[in-house]
Amino acid sequence: MLRAYQTQTRRSVRRQVFRCIFVAVLLLLVLTPPADAYVGPGAGFAVLSSFLTVFLASLQAIFAFLTWPIRQSFRFLRRRRAYRRAKTKRVVIMGFDGMDPELTERFIKEGKLPNLARLRENGTFHTLATTIPPISPVAWSSFLTGVNPGKHNIYDFLTPDRQRYLPELSSARIRGSKRVLKIGRYAIPLTRPRIKPLRKGVPFWHYLAKAGVFCSAIRVPITFPPEKFSGVLLSGMCVPDIQGTQGTFSFHTTSATSRETATNRVVVPFEKRGAFFHSYVPGPPDLLRSDSTRELRALFRVRPTETRNKADIHVGGQRITVAVGAYSEWVELQFGTGLGSSVKGICRFYLKSVAPDLELYATPVNIHPMHPALPISHPLTYAIYLAKLNGLYATLGLAEDTWALNDGYLDEKAFLEQCYLIHQERELMFFDALEKTTLGVCVCVFDITDRVQHMCWRQFDYDRSETPRASNGAPSVIEGLYVRMDELIGRTVRKIPRDSLLLVVSDHGFKAFERGVNLNTWLHQQGYLTLKEGTASGDWFQDVDWGRTQAYSLGLNGIYLNLKGREGRGAVEPGREAVRLREELCRKLQGLVDPATSQIAIRRTFDGLKAFTGPYRGNAPDVVVGFGKGYRASWDGAQGRVTQTVFELNSKAWSGDHCIDPELVPGVLFSNWKISGEGHAIMDVAPTMLDLFGLPIPPHMDGKPWRMSPVANS
Amino acid sequence: MRVFLDIVDRIFELSFQLLGPLPLIAVLSVFAVLTAVLTLVVVRWTSDQKAIRRVKDRMSAHVLEVRLFSDQPGVVLRAYLSLLGNTVLYLRHSLRPFFVLAIPLLLLFTQLEAYLGRTPVPLGRDFLVRVTFRNGDSLEDPVLRLPRGLVLVAPPVHIPLERQVDYRLNAEQLGTYDLRLVLPGGEYSKRVVAGGGLRRIVPERERGGLWRRLTSPGESPLPRESSVEKIEVQYPVRVFHLGSWEIEWLVPFIALTLAAALLLKGTVRTEI
User: Fold this and answer.
1) Which residues in chain A have their CB less than 8 angstroms from residue B76's CB?
2) Is the Cβ pair B106, A40 closer than 8 Å?
3) What number does CATH give the domain A83-154+199-240+374-510+665-714?
4) Looking at this predicted complex, what is its ipTM?
5) Same-domain pairing of B20 and B45
6) Which of A103, A127, A394, B192 lies 20 to 30 Å from B89 when distance is taken between CA atoms?
7) What's the Cα-to-Cα distance from A336 to each of A185, A298, A345, rounded to whole Å?
8) Are residues B223 and B188 in the same domain?
9) Do A214 and B71 touch (CB under 8 A)?
10) Does B61 touch chain A (CB under 8 A)?
11) What is the rounded CA–CA span in Å between residue B4 and residue B1?
């Protein structure tokens, strides 16, 4: 109390002193002859830099205005066909990852989603068929290209490296520079890192941009690396963190004595020196070293306050005060290399506790949007523009740290707070893009719906007829989430003109994930997968005898044959034997019953050769497994591990999922226009966009355009 | 206040004695760096650094916006208006440090002007001393008494319309002199510096109070009741050579100060 009073008094005195100085200087300036009044460099900086900025912007603006008629005339020639035949001048697509039609309908019936209810009443509500398999990168790739996975080459988050039987990211491959200058122990890259997109197919906004239709694409999954087109794009899902992973958080604690590293986390102990606790945030490997084994680190120290409810974090010359149970703002981290250059990233700190142990969580280090180490937007300046306009933001593809909650390093409250912080950033980006896209297409994907449902589904049984509430009567986390999204849709509807088309889509729905099926264990028990010894293996097929293995499972839905000539140590002859084996696996797995519950764990199976068409069908899983309601690939099985039992209880926080039979988890399709017909699918969006703007639909597209018409009083 | 100003005078005297042997540009650089550091420190402590950073970021964003959405005139126009708005905001955030810095910088600049703005009168070359009276009645009365080393080389010229009397003098020896103007109502002196080097030079001594004292370091103003308005010595202007250009000290000083501030802002952790 006394301290607060003293602080207040000091502030008041300081304010009075400033006021006196202000009045004195003002008088001085007023009473001084003009020739003697010198402005001074303080104001000089302000005036000069303001002047320079305004001057440069004026030049740009004048140039833009003067050349606008010429550019417009030129573009007009190209785009006149697009807008002349366009059924609408502006389309807004809001993508909600994982928004479930059953839940949405239930909440609408309960009167909790008035904006979606209005859309359904005046416009359209349909379920939206998802892809095989119903996984976000697959479905969103079909959304943006209008083709089946056999043509866009994305079948899962991960794809197996057929030679080494190890997982690889399915969407992009990042390699170091091709040319390096070696000086002693240093290897200085002479070219930029090589980032190869693995997703094939052309996004619909490329066709539209070519025809002169402006497009803004915000955080649509599988748009990393960003491809050039005449519009703006911020990459989404699959953008790596600064370490090149899909998200590795660090946890700093006084209770640890040595560093522990796992797939998605690093636990780093604090070292006490004086009043400070010292630690570091792990960064990328030092690529300037020939061996690249040295890890770059951002050192920081923490000093808990006397009250023990806050701590000061000193990092890179900044001091950030964080309260227990709260997140910091985005903190800029600099990872210096030996040669004076540095890589910049951003993270948020979350102070979990100060006593008895000091525990500090740091989010995965995101690529700094103002100084991107890898391209995350097109044009490159778009990411910088967004950061300058709205402040720093999460750039990591899977920014919401589900692993930290799953592994118990964050509690649910902290996880949800993180999700909503990221969502707020996304909303700002979206509304800015909406404002800028006065003509054309604005598409933005919101991920929060997927992440929160994954992690919070366990709280309630959504199969019950009534929407459950928490013990204190408060709406459940998921209900609250849907209400927030409905509000966002309401704000969007109010912002767009009536003749604009609004589409609200999701890539898949959601169901409970109660029990896991270890497909590798099943393959092992059925004799298709052989271990060198014992009945269990380590991660990623350690101890598997490949010479005597016919099939293996990697990822969330896929089984791959160990094919000769394709796999590193293939054992199955391509051709007739492979066809027979594929059919045999499909047959045996379809209808697989969990003896513990007597429920069908695998509802359907899909033969990869029959389910997909296109030039990349050869990269598809040979068998895609469509799990039944309540089931999914087990955690161990997805990581290539053989365990003792095929079925296991899922006791993790990650309790909702969608990697099951696609029929069970369709997405949603809402619109302020009437969309007639049936059998709408996510891969129809791309051809529909082309059709709306009067462009021909390329024959390779699998999706079909929808029949749509505006509603007079929507 | 006068005591304070005397102390300031003394500090600068000592500084210039210390820096005297250095080349002129080095002296200027030292003061530029010190000014930059002072400015940065004051800006850091007296301004809302977060707000300045935010406004600057927004200004950059609007510049980028003009480029990113150049095909949409409406967006460009809005961006430009927002840019102007943020510029005003930026200037507003800079006001507090500006007010805090105004007085110290005024002192600094008057001192630097005194040392670097002019050169002493060269030996053997004529120079003018101009006396301006408050009214034309006193024009016939003054008697100029010169110390040894200064000589009058022509009869005084009376310009009644301007209420002025001009004296053409010549310095024969290096030194600092006090010439005296004797009038029926009193006697007034003016310091004259002859020779070379970095010396404090105040070209005018004017009637006035504290403000005059502030702007004429090292020499007190003429009394308010004096019949003389001012006594002015016409010193040559000191110039710096930038190729074939001749520039006064203020231009390189501001350039050096800005450069130093930009270089040091990271070290001092100041957003400007």
Assistant:
1) 61, 64-65
2) yes
3) 3.40.720.10
4) 0.82
5) yes
6) A394
7) 16, 8, 11
8) yes
9) yes
10) yes
11) 5
